[in-house]
Amino acid sequence: MKKFCVFCGQKPSSKHKVHIIPQWLIELTGDPNRLATFSNIFDIQEMGLVQKEFAFDQFKFPSCAKCNEEYSDFENKAREVILRILDDDALSSADFIILLDWLDKIRVGLWLAYNYLQKNIAEIDPNYHIDKRIGVSDRAVLIYKLGTYSPGINFGGVNLPAFQYHPICYNLRINQYSFFNLSTHFLLSKHLGFPYPRESNYSEGRSILYTMVKGKNRILYPIIRKSYNKKCTEIYQPIFSLRDSLPNPEKDYNNAHVHSLSQNYKKGVGKILVEEKNKVFEYPLKKSKKWIPSFEWDGYDFMKMIEKQVLDFQIYFINRGPKYGDISSEKKKKIKEQLSLAKQVNRTFLKILGED
């Protein structure tokens, strides 16, 4: 595989490597020299996971030294937010923007990392990297709290073909808190009343073609149609572009409803929203403890539930993915085979979990 910087996608300007999971987080969750088993690699020959153990310190991937340095201040801000979460401290909407940006960074970083580790088994030429994917799509995080747990880090769903083809959702546990993170174009748009795609299609190139329609200018519940366990805190942030393929995107977005849910309308940045009992509210600008989940999970029960939830959601997003449109029969065949394999793998693990 060609080496590329996980931040900018270019050939690394130096022989530098970066921790996808930052060093501060490794140290926060246990012995930094401990062996990690999160690096299970999917083996297409065996149709299963090949377990590999190595030190967290070895989970590093190419980057430019300059790119890594540019993210150091951001990591410091993210560290402060995570520490306040673990202390059950108050958070502001600005803190949640940092958290969601950081979850974007980790999600894309893990997607690229497993592409490296699995020797590009998915045959993907990554066309985006961390720099280009932070804060560019609708996003959500479901925050679960564990009452019983062991200190540590767990990742859910990042080592599967479904994540390689559609890196939309994953789960990250940090000690007693778990973050079920989702992000993709138009994830929230239809049910938040924004313009949304009536359909999407693959193209012969790398882009997805969207056929857009006007929004309903009112909120429809639930915001995410796929069912999930609601014993958590539900946080959303719409991210939109005034360049979407509408006949007149400025006119269709420029209304009181979209403005009411926008933090910065011109940049397409929505407010931090929290859903409670099928109602959506703006999260407070000032620091508040409203984010703390009221329910505490048993560790074992939670891990079994969240594993199933990640697998289910990945299948859901594959099924709701782009249509084949006018692409060549060769490309159509390849995509069908890839997505069929991805769903088969997830269903196999769902069956195993159901028999547990």
List the helices and strands and how they pair.
Layout lengths: L15 E4 L3 H6 L6 E2 L4 E3 L4 E3 L3 E2 L4 E4 L1 H6 L1 H15 L6 H25 L12 H4 L5 E8 L6 E4 L4 H5 L3 E6 L2 E7 L12 E7 L5 E6 L19 E5 L11 H5 L2 H5 L1 E3 L4 E2 L2 E4 L2 E4 L13 E2 L1 H21 L9 H26 L2
Parallel strand pairs: 7-18
Antiparallel strand pairs: 1-6, 2-5, 3-4, 7-10, 7-13, 8-9, 9-10, 11-12, 13-16, 14-15, 16-17
Helix pairs in contact: 3-4, 9-10
Structure, described:
The protein is α+β, with helices and mostly antiparallel strands. It has one domain (16-354). Helix content is 33%, strand content 21%. Strands 7, 8, 9, 10, 13, 16, 17 and 18 form an 8-stranded mixed β-sheet that branches. It has a two-stranded antiparallel sheet with strand order 1-6. Helix 3 (72-86) packs across helix 4 and helix 9 runs antiparallel to helix 10 (329-354).
Largest sheet report: 8 strands, mixed
Order of helices and strands: EHEEEEEHHHHEEHEEEEEHHEEEEEHH
Q: Uncertain spans, ≥5 residues at pLDDT below 50?
A: none
Question: Radius of gyration, rounded?
Answer: 20 Å
Globally, the shape reads globular
The proportion of residues in beta strands is 15-25%
Roughly how much helix do the residues carry, as a percent range? 25-40%
Mean pLDDT figure: 89
Integer tally of domains = 1
Amino- and carboxy-terminal Cα gap: 38 Å
- The tally of beta strands, per DSSP, is 18
Structural class by helix and strand composition = alpha+beta
Number of helices: 10
